[in-house]
Amino acid sequence: MKIPQPTALITGVNGQDGSYLAELLISKNYRVIGLHRRSSSNTTSRLKSLMDNDSFILKEFDISDVGSCSNILSTYTPDYIYNLAAQSHVFSSFSQPVYTVETNTIGVINLLESIRSICPNTRFYQASTSEMFGASYSENDQHGKYQDENTPFSPQSPYAVAKQASHRFVQIYRESYGLFACSGILFNHESPRRGDQFVTKKITKYIGELVNGKNPHYHKLKLGNIYAARDWGYAEDYVQAMFLMMQKDTPSDYVVATGQSYTVEHFLELAFKIAGMNYKDHVIIDKTLYRPAEVNYLKGISTKAREELGWRPSISFQQLVEKMVLYEISETKYD
After folding, report:
1. Which of 12, 98, 215, 288 is the most interior residue, by most CB within 10 Å?
2. Looking at 103, 125, 131, 151, which residue is catalytic?
3. Choosing from 100, 105, 129, 204, which is the catalytic residue?
4. Residue 2 domain flag
5. Number of domains composing the chain
6. Are residues 244 and 207 part of one domain?
């Protein structure tokens, strides 16, 4: 007897996480409905391996429009929804607070309400963020300073405030209406598919251009606060955690992190060293790139995810940086 093919909706499918998640689900025999916002430019380059796959359907979608949400759920009645759509750049959220809330909070309510009224058995995953912790951390002798599921939130940006609100809405709909709704509190996760506006990609792309002579007038790399510390993991590992959360009998929220924290300066030093260079020769600090309110330290302890999901990161920080740098050197060579 043929096993029915489950259907999953992925909002923000054209992003870093969305593309990896779509590939993972299709490898597990899912039908994937990939949703993306209309754009005048091509935003689907990460999806090129999926475009001819019969199990992948790409649709335009606006999460801030409740009609768009209800229509897509009525059309496909999915078994799973992974909500990865967001205004995801923290610095930009200070200049676009209303848009950030409309996308990152109102959009989540639109989806939850649509699930409640149209397909209440659909399982829902929300992409929460370590930025919700802000300046808050826990501390003990084993881990030093860290954040986990019990650490209070103290958001320091419109992005983090909007994400915290949506995180709580997920809990409310789970507790009040019995929906299978869970959140992954993901710490920073990177890959060669990272968006160009993020600091890790800025660094590795700059190195690729430098190595391959694609910076003919030689401009230095401008960065903001290089002393902020982050827990950086590999995006392909983190979508595995998303999938595992949705397989549980009971929904819950999980921190996903490596348990190691490194400064941006550390990332810089390692990335330039891989290319045989010293970052101090090529980087200048531009204080206009500092956030109005900075989050200086994030380190996640994912004991719950390790014990309940069996999740583990597959590569180290050093391996991640090397993967990103070597990709950019190879990619830029043929641009």
Report:
1. 12
2. 131
3. 129
4. no
5. 2
6. no
Q: Are residues 82 and 203 in the same domain?
A: no
Stronger pLDDT, 42 or 260, i.e. the higher one: 260
Residue 54 within any structural domain of the chain: yes
* Domain co-membership, 281 together with 305: no
Q: Based on the domain organization, do 287 and 305 belong to the same domain?
A: no
Look up the CATH number of the domain holding residue 78.
Answer: 3.40.50.720
Angle at 62 between CA 161 and CA 196, to 5 degrees: 65
Q: Which residue blocks in the chain are alpha helix, DSSP H?
A: 16-27, 66-76, 90-95, 97-101, 107-118, 158-177, 199-211, 235-245, 264-274, 303-309, 317-333
User: Looking at residue 215, which CATH number applies to its domain?
Assistant: 3.90.25.10
SS (H, E, C) 265-327: HHHHHHHHHHCCCCHHHCEEECHHHCCCCCCCECCECCHHHHHHHCCCCCCCHHHHHHHHHHH
C-alpha dihedral sign at 137, 231, 16, 208:
positive
Full residue range of the structural domain in which residue 118 is found: 7-191+233-259+299-314
Question: How many alpha carbons fall within 13 Å on the CB side of residue 291?
Answer: 22
Residue 87 lies in a domain: yes
pLDDT by residue (tens digit) across 100-148? Answer: 999 999 999 999 999 999 999 999 999 999 999 999 999 999 999 999 9
**By the 8 A CB rule, do 200 and 232 touch?**
yes
User: Structure tokens of 164?
Assistant: 């915290």
- Do 20 and 61 lie in one domain? The reply is yes
285 contact partners, CB below 8 Å, separation of at least 6: 222, 223, 224, 226
For residues 62 and 149, membership in a common domain is answered with: yes
pLDDT in tens, 58-94: 999 999 999 999 999 999 999 999 999 988 788 888 9
159 is catalytic: yes
User: Does an H or E element contain 197, and which?
Assistant: none
Tally the C-alpha atoms within 13 A of residue 18's C-alpha that lie toward its C-beta: 30
Question: Is 98 found in the same domain as 239?
Answer: yes
Residue indicated by tokens 């590939």? 23
Which pair of structure tokens corresponds to residue 175?
């507790």
